[in-house]
Design goal:
The complex is a heterodimer of chains A (184) and B (488). Helix content of chain A is 76%, strand content 0%. Chain A is an all-alpha fold and 184 residues long. In chain A, helix 7 crosses helix 8. In chain B, helix 3 packs antiparallel against helix 4 and helix 4 crosses helix 5. The chains are: A mainly alpha (184), B alpha+beta (488).
Chain lengths: 184, 488
């Protein structure tokens, strides 16, 4: 394919690059917000993808004087409400006010977001193989506790408790690593 | 604490029933509990991303090892190649990490975000890596429309020919019109491969497709299933893990688990059906029919490039047809028929560009026999009925842009009724009571701002500025649909 280089293309490229930078920085927090309110990975990831598209499409409306994350979360909130409305789930756990407050809490946690993700990578490295396998079943293969229980010959309740303990351990490990980093 | 975390995990994994939901909402009123939820959701999404990425990397490493054992390359070559893969996936984010030299694993963590945006661009394919499409391939499709489209391979122009190979749309929307008449709209980020004129593959992303009678048998593969179109419209979504959703809007499709198509008969899905298939599961399961993710691409597939103001293109599906669906907040746009060749001329109310204060009935306006057309219905009825007798009626404004020129508008009751069979939606329920223009209204003589209907000079954009309670309830828009040209 022949590449055409025009002024329009250049400014479009600059715009796209600016958007990409903003989106990459905001996306982990947008994801956390969506995962907090939509339980299916597939639906949540679809919705994050929709938010990416909408923020890209409406990027001209973004005021660079204000935080991009706040703007992206504002758009996310509307898409979440649409999602619940359109999927026929009229009983939304989150009222409008609660969705706004959740956005504020997620935005307030944005500062240490990358450090926590970085620490989690270390913590995952130190997990025993069996625990890793269990997490893989849940997070890579998207299997729920009853299916995992069947494949491992355990009970659903036991798998749920084990997964919660694993997450607690990982959360504690992340906190410990961050405290160690601060002490250095 | 752990009990709380267990409940939080339960909610994050499966949602809650109505009773638990109410208690949970109460619990979340405390700010510290909202922080607990945010922290757990963060962990949840990070685990999903990180473990998925690690898995992909392991597979990529194993793949390189397999390839190298065939070609006799050394282990260090393998590591170098895998490193190249990691680096290329992270180039977009490397500029954001300014704290000293970037750490390999941190780049890899960030690379998941790049993968999200760039749609697995660096993941090597199995035995036959897909080729990027280029101009030397025979033309199979062309880019018919783009909206904020960013392509991995650089700039592409509307009208560009696309041959076989991979196209990767990073952001935006792009519609590909195939020579056989199939129309595919991609929503970025998407990785789509054209294998032949009637066989394609969606590696990742979201698309909507319309397949006319000329292209029955059009096939789209995904990492988990084959979808064969039996003359229809449907939406397809493939997640980063290969999980595939199929949602049938009209007609029928046949789906089968990948690799099993030749052995077993596929499963037939009808309009309003939706299924999901997860990698390694080997199963196709029915899921809730949900079209939200297709709402950006579907109008474009249907020939509506933009709808602004109160104009709203209706969701796809058997329940969203004239007579069954009403929306009292919008001017609803229904796609009715496609590819109808007129046996005889049909009288219409308006054919020329310009500003009209009423869509008058003109007896000499006709669309000639032999013209191939597509039709849409714009419905204002519920809004009109509700506001008709109130004072201070609000204005109802909206604009719609079609991909082809409008060659006729019909807004009179008799002409609407006369064309329902030929141009109305096959499943539509059309009423015979007054639908179009009412006789001259008293308000017209009182200097009240009158309705305006504008058809642009290129005849592709229709603007409406009506009072709620306007005489106009429904407008049928007839668009010229050119014959499909043979494959060049």
């Amino acid at each position: 394919m022949e590449k055409r280089s025009t002024k329009r293309d250049e400014s479009e490229n600059a715009r796209r690059e600016a958007f990409t930078q903003y989106w990459m920085a905001a996306e982990p927090s947008v994801s956390a917000y969506v995962f907090a309110v939509i339980s299916s990975f597939h639906d949540a990831e679809d919705l994050v993808q929709q938010v990416a598209q909408e923020t890209a499409r409406r990027f001209d409306q973004y005021d660079p004087e204000r935080p991009f994350l706040g703007w992206a979360l504002w758009i996310t909130k509307s898409r979440v409400i649409d999602f619940y409305r359109q999927s026929g789930r009229d009983r939304l756990v989150f009222s409008d006010d609660l969705l706004i407050r959740l956005g504020e809490v997620i935005a307030s946690r944005d500062a240490g977001r990358n450090e926590r993700r970085e620490a989690l990578e270390h913590c995952l490295d130190s997990l025993p193989e069996r625990s890793r396998k269990l997490l893989d079943l849940r997070y890579v293969e998207n299997a729920h506790s009853d299916r995992i229980a069947k494949s491992l010959g355990s009970t659903s309740a036991s798998i749920r408790v084990t997964l919660t303990r694993l997450r607690d351990r990982l959360a504690a490990c992340v906190q410990k690593r961050l405290a160690m980093d601060e002490a250095r | 604490m752990t009990n709380q975390q267990e409940n939080l995990d339960q909610y994050l994994n499966s949602g809650l029933g109505p009773e638990d939901a109410s208690q949970f909402e109460q619990w979340l009123q405390e700010n510290q509990n909202l922080h607990l939820l945010a922290a757990r959701a963060e962990l949840h999404t990070d685990l999903r991303r990180s473990l998925q990425r690690r898995n992909v990397q392991q597979e990529a490493m194993a793949h390189f090892r397999d390839l190298n054992s065939q070609s006799g390359e050394t282990e260090s070559d393998t590591q170098r190649q895998a490193q190249t893969f990691s680096n290329s996936a992270s180039t977009v984010v490397s500029t954001t990490n300014t704290d000293g030299p970037p750490k390999k694993w941190f780049i890899l963590a960030m690379a998941t975000a790049a993968i999200f945006l760039l749609a697995f661009l660096s993941i090597p394919e199995a035995t036959s890596p897909p080729q990027q499409t280029d101009a030397s391939s025979p033309r199979i499709a062309r880019i018919a429309y783009q909206q904020n489209a960013g392509w991995l391979s650089g700039s592409r122009e509307t009208g560009d020919a696309i041959g076989d190979g991979v196209v990767q749309l990073e952001v935006g929307i792009a519609r590909l019109d195939f020579s056989n008449g199939a129309t595919v709209t991609l929503q970025g980020p998407a990785k789509f491969e054209i294998l032949s004129a009637d066989r394609t593959r969606l590696h990742q992303g979201v698309l909507t497709v319309h397949v006319p009678g000329t292209a029955i048998g059009f096939e789209i593969e995904t990492p988990t299933i084959d979808v064969v179109d039996l003359g229809t419209a449907f939406g397809l979504a493939v997640g980063v893990d290969g999980e595939t959703d199929v949602c049938v809007f009209e007609g029928e499709v046949e789906v089968s688990v990948i690799g099993e198509k030749s052995n077993t008969k596929g499963r037939l899905l009808h309009a309003g059906n939706a299924v999901r298939s997860t990698p390694l599961d080997g199963k196709i399961e029915s899921v809730l029919y949900e079209t939200n993710r297709f709402k950006d691409g579907w109008p474009v597939t249907s020939g509506v490039l933009q709808a602004t103001g109160l104009m709203k293109f209706v969701s796809p599906g058997p329940e969203f047809v004239p007579g069954r669906y009403e929306d009292n907040e919008h001017i609803v746009v229904f796609a009715e028929r496609q590819g109808i060749t007129l046996d005889s001329e049909i009288p219409v109310d308006l054919t020329s560009p310009g500003l009209y204060q009423r869509i008058h009935r003109h007896n000499d306006q006709k669309i000639a026999a032999g013209t191939t057309v597509r039709s849409y219905l714009l419905q204002l009825d519920p809004l009109g009925t509700r506001e008709r007798n109130s004072e201070n009626k609000p204005r109802v404004t909206g604009q719609i842009t079609f991909d082809k020129p409008v060659i006729g508008l019909i807004a009179s009751t008799s002409r609407l009724t006369n064309t329902d069979t030929l141009l109305g939606h096959p499943d539509g329920q059309y009423k015979t009571a007054r639908r179009g223009i009412e006789p001259t209204r008293k308000e017209d003589n009182l200097g009240i701002k009158r309705d305006a209907v504008i058809l642009s000079d290129d005849r592709r954009t229709l603007s409406l500025d009506l009072s709620a309670g306007s005489a106009v309830d429904q407008i049928r828009v007839i668009v010229e649909e050119t014959e499909q040209k043979p494959n060049r």
